[in-house]
């Protein structure tokens, strides 16, 4: 089929390249002419594993091209996807102006029977509203509107698309339903569950899924804090509850609070829809508050470990999660400014997100590797779970630092391994760190030094 993708961001580029992989001819259109010029030079504006290779493959196969001018491609397209941003508005509700602009400017260009597919995350009722706008702009009702929310995660976007848990195809008429079926035929043949439903359900499914996943994270974060206070180990607790198939182990990893371009924005939108329809989503409202409080509480905790102005802290990881250069709503964007404001000297490192972080946070120094960031640091804080940090040489890290505190917000290490280097390990709900003296005693043969003795010692 001939497809046009409006918006060449994370979702548009990935979806465009993957639809080309499924055999369709795709033109990705963006109104950012600079972005399109870069894409035409094979410069991929985002870091997403495998995306650059997939794009090159299909530019060469002739099935993928880029344009900043939708007219020609849209006039031939069977399906026009809208994958533009839907940022948060002031009351948490989403800003639909990009979706509306894209739809109305395209409307007169479409051939009869074309289907506009909304890929952006939008609130219930948006597809119906877009249908009215498109028909008004054309002066006739010979094109159709569908809702096909996207569930990919940054960092594993291509696999999430091509090996999706399910495809949600929202259509209110036979033509839109048929075009969606044809677009996804290769994935349906592979046995990927295909949920054919109406547009309102499709829109609701997307928000309910994100709200539920965010709730799992918010829940385990609080369980982790309780474990820390009660002397439990959240990793064991998450394994123990996650093996219950009704619960599942995924998304039970505690951290510095969820971030990214989706969970914070989508939970706010979900809560806003609840208020708008007179059905407040109290659980999600609380989750949003707790997640924000978590990030600033973490900054306070870092400052208390740091113990005074002018002391040095290394921040390892500023992306909202590993394998992306995206820093939207990342914990680092809340925590770094608070540390700098309190007079700390901050040196940061991230394998991919330095450039993006520098657009939002000024005043920090940057290092080329984690050990350089840790040089002379009083406290090292891990905020992103990059493999590079999980694989760090702890002896080298300990030698680089002048202080002794490692605050690991992603639980990358076994507490004992860090403590054995004479470091105080502050994790998120793992076993309490052994005090430096006790570890030293163990190394020098004083005391029994067994694990239960170390674990039982006060942090
Ligand atoms: N990022 C994700 O992981 C993810 C996953 C699933 C769903 N979503 C949803 O998908 C949507 C897009 O998210 P994103 O992260 O790809 O956004 P993005 O900001 O990375 O990309 C949006 C692109 O649309 C372009 N654009 C805006 N208006 C346009 C127009 N009228 N014509 C042409 N181009 C236009 C912008 O220049 C930009 O390049 C959002 O609704 C988001 O909530 C995102
Ligand atoms: O056990 C976990 C899992 C995630 N996170 C954090 O939660 C945030 C979001 O992570 P993730 O869901 O992996 O990334 P996204 O790329 O934002 O993907 C989410 O948001 C997308 C946009 O809607 C959806 O398409 C995806 O299905 C949904 O997982 C990040 O800050 C993670 O560090 C945790 O703290 N613990």
Overall description:
Its EC number is 1.1.1.22. 46% of the residues lie in helices and 13% in strands. The longest helix has 32 residues, at 199-230. It folds into three domains: 2-196, Rossmann fold, CATH 3.40.50; 207-290, N-(1-d-carboxylethyl)-l-norvaline Dehydrogenase, domain 2 (Orthogonal Bundle); 293-451, NAD(P)-binding Rossmann-like Domain (Rossmann fold, 3-Layer(aba) Sandwich). Helix 10 packs across helix 12. The protein contains 21 helices and 14 strands. The chain has an eight-stranded mixed beta sheet, with helices on both faces. It has a six-stranded parallel beta sheet with strand order 11-10-9-12-13-14. The chain has helices at residues 10-21, 33-40, 51-61, 71-76, 97-106, 126-138, 157-162, 174-183, 185-189, 199-230, 234-242, 263-276, 282-306, 331-341, 354-358, 370-374, 387-390, 394-400, 415-419, 436-444, 451-456; strands at residues 2-6, 25-29, 64-67, 79-82, 115-118, 144-147, 167-171, 194-197, 312-316, 345-349, 365-366, 379-382, 405-408, 424-426. The protein has 459 residues and is of the alpha/beta class. The structure holds nicotinamide-adenine-dinucleotide (NAD) and uridine-5'-diphosphate-glucose (UPG). Residues 121, 150-154, 210, 213, 217, 251-253, 255, 258-260, 262-263, 266, 320-321 line the site of uridine-5'-diphosphate-glucose.
């Amino acid at each position: 089929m001939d497809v046009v993708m409006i918006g060449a961001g994370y979702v548009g580029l990935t979806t465009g390249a993957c639809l080309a992989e499924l055999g369709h001819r795709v033109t990705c259109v963006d109104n950012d002419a600079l972005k399109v010029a870069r894409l035409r030079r094979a410069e991929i504006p985002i870091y997403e594993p495998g995306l650059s290779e997939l794009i090159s493959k299909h530019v060469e196969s002739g099935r993928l091209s880029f344009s900043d001018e939708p007219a020609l491609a849209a006039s031939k397209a069977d399906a026009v996807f809208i994958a533009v941003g839907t940022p948060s508005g002031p009351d948490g509700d989403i800003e639909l102006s990009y979706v509306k602009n894209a739809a109305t400017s395209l409307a007169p260009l479409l051939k009869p029977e074309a289907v506009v597919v909304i890929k952006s995350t939008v609130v219930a009722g948006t597809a119906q509203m877009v249908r009215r706008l498109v028909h008004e702009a054309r002066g006739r009702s010979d094109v159709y509107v569908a809702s096909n929310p996207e569930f990919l995660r940054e960092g594993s976007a291509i696999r999430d698309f091509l090996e999706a848990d399910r495809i949600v195809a929202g259509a209110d008429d036979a033509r839109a339903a048929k075009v969606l079926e044809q677009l996804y035929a290769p994935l349906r043949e592979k046995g990927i569950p295909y949920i054919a439903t109406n547009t309102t359900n499709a829109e609701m499914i997307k928000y309910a899924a994100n709200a539920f996943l965010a709730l799992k994270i918010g829940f385990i974060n609080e369980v982790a804090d309780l474990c820390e206070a009660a002397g439990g180990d959240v990793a064991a607790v998450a394994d123990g509850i996650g093996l219950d198939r009704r619960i599942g182990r995924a998304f039970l990893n505690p951290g510095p609070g969820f971030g990214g371009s989706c969970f914070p924005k989508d939970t706010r939108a979900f809560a806003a829809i609840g208020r708008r329809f007179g059905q407040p989503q109290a659980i999600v409202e609380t989750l949003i508050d707790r997640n924000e409080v978590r990030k600033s509480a973490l900054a306070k905790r870092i400052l208390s470990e740091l113990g005074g102005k002018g002391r040095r802290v290394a921040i390892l990881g500023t992306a909202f999660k590993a394998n992306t250069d995206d820093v939207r709503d990342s914990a680092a964007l809340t925590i770094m400014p608070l540390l700098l404001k309190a007079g700390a000297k901050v040196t940061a490192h991230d394998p991919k997100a330095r450039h993006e972080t520098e657009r939002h946070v000024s005043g920090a120094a940057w290092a080329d590797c984690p050990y350089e960031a840790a040089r002379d640091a009083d406290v090292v804080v891990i905020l992103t779970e990059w493999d590079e940090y999980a694989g760090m040489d702890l002896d080298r890290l300990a030698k680089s630092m002048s202080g002794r505190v490692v605050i690991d917000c992603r639980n990358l290490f076994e507490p004992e391994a860090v403590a054995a280097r004479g470091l105080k390990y502050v994790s998120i709900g793992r076993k309490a760190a052994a005090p430096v003296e006790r570890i030293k005693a163990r190394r020098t043969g004083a005391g029994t030094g067994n694990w239960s003795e170390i674990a039982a010692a006060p942090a």
